[in-house]
Design a protein that fits this description.
This protein is mainly alpha-helical. Helices cover 59% and strands 5% of the residues. It has 2 domains: 287 residues, Fido-like domain (Fic-like fold), CATH 1.10.3290.10; 71 residues, Arc Repressor Mutant, subunit A (Orthogonal Bundle). β1 and β2 form a beta hairpin. The longest helix is centred in the C-terminal third of the chain and has 39 residues. The two termini are 38 Å apart.
Length: 384
């Protein structure tokens, strides 16, 4: 990276280091933004879509019907931006029987994303969104996977950079601030997280996501932690009653533009263009989440009505709820979760299989797995 790459200093300035390379030093938040009419309209559109999704979250008969499957879809797509190839089915099979076989490294990475997300959401009841919480999540994210040698749970103590394989600091696409300046920038970002703001919450969230990515405080996993930060802030700022909005699907679908908009802020001061892109993501993913939620809830009601008409027992109805949260299941996993006998659980599984709600996929007599195909189809289908 060269000083000439930074054509505007609205977002930050070039920093010539003692070692001779140039890094980017982000300015403090918030910047002065130009709220043009198109940007205001984009904000209104995102707010409306988010409000509709919030309404879905408030009326859920059981929040776990959507929270768990949506979170796992997010884990797959956020990790895919970083190059993993695991599918949602891969993740669900691993979670249904984690001790059955050694998972592929990509599956373990995606499972760690879920662990980090679950940990972050659980900790919000006792800890604010903070640098400490981000470090805790980072430790889980890199536990036992690619990147585990990159100081999991700790901010970097050396310079990192972004660029093609084999590039140096001088020809890197982007060089975040050196460690001393990084520490200062992180402290300022944490203070901004806790300050009152007159900015619209979604705009503020866009600024925070950019700033974290510009600081790039970890040696690995910055993108995933930055996207997890969005989820935490949506919940802590009470923009949603449940964690139902995830932006990774939009970022993955528009990956080149995602990175170009972030660099556009750093190099050309294009704050408004980045905020517009972020708000587009919010509106698109909120509408998509509402569509999937409506279809999943309609399917849930259909399944329950079908079983009630057949006078299935309460355990079978509990199993219906479970397969929406976990669309891949096994008898031992369910017996432990329900504190029920394997024989009783198997009778319920057989009822759902006969009702075409579950399908056995192994073809064997032992260690069998069952999949809820219609649920998976709704979760995995590409967006229009």
């Amino acid at each position: 990276m060269q000083s000439a790459d930074i054509q505007s200093q609205r977002a930050g300035s070039p920093l010539k280091t003692a070692r001779g390379y140039v890094a980017f030093q982000p300015r403090l938040l918030p910047p002065e933004l130009r709220f043009t009419l198109p940007l205001v309209c984009r904000l209104s559109e995102a707010d409306r879509a988010l409000s509709e999704l919030a309404g879905v979250g408030r009326t859920l008969p059981n929040p776990h019907l959507l929270i768990r499957p949506f979170a796992r879809r997010e884990a797959v797509l956020s990790s895919r931006i970083e190059g993993t190839q695991a599918s949602l089915s891969d993740l669900l099979f691993f979670e249904a029987a984690p001790a059955r076989a050694t998972p592929a490294p990509d599956v373990r990475e995606v499972a760690n994303y879920v662990r980090a997300l679950d940990h972050g959401l659980a900790r919000l009841s006792e800890l604010p969104v903070s640098l400490r919480l981000l470090r805790e999540m980072h430790a889980l994210l890199l536990d036992g996977v690619r990147g585990q040698a990159q100081t999991p749970g700790e901010f970097r103590c050396s310079q990192n950079w972004i660029g093609r394989p084999g590039c140096t600091l001088s020809d890197a696409a982007y060089v975040p601030p050196p460690v001393p300046e990084m520490d200062d920038a992180l402290g300022a970002l944490e203070r901004y997280l806790h300050e009152a703001s007159d900015l619209p919450p979604l705009v503020r969230l866009a600024l925070i996501h950019y700033q974290f990515e510009a600081i790039h405080p970890f040696l690995d996993g910055n993108g995933r932690i930055g996207r997890l930060l969005i989820v935490l802030l949506l919940c802590i700022d009470r923009l949603l009653p449940q964690p139902l909005l995830y932006l990774s699907a939009f970022f993955e679908r528009h990956r080149e533009e995602y990175y170009e908009r972030l660099l556009g802020v750093s190099f050309r001061g294009e704050w408004e263009e980045w905020v517009d892109f972020f708000l587009r993501a919010v509106a698109a993913q909120a509408r998509d989440a509402v569509r999937r939620s409506d279809r999943l809830l309609a399917l849930w009601r259909e399944y329950r009505e079908r079983l009630q008409a057949e006078r299935a027992g309460s355990l079978a109805l509990r199993l219906v709820d479970t397969v929406f949260a976990e669309p891949a299941v096994s008898n031992p996993h369910l017996a432990k979760a329900f504190a029920a006998t394997p024989a009783g659980v198997q009778r319920c599984i057989d009822k759902l299989t006969a009702a075409s709600i579950l399908r056995e996929v192994t073809g064997g007599r032992r260690n069998r797995f069952y999949v809820a195909d219609e649920i998976l189809r709704i979760l995995e289908e590409p967006e229009p």
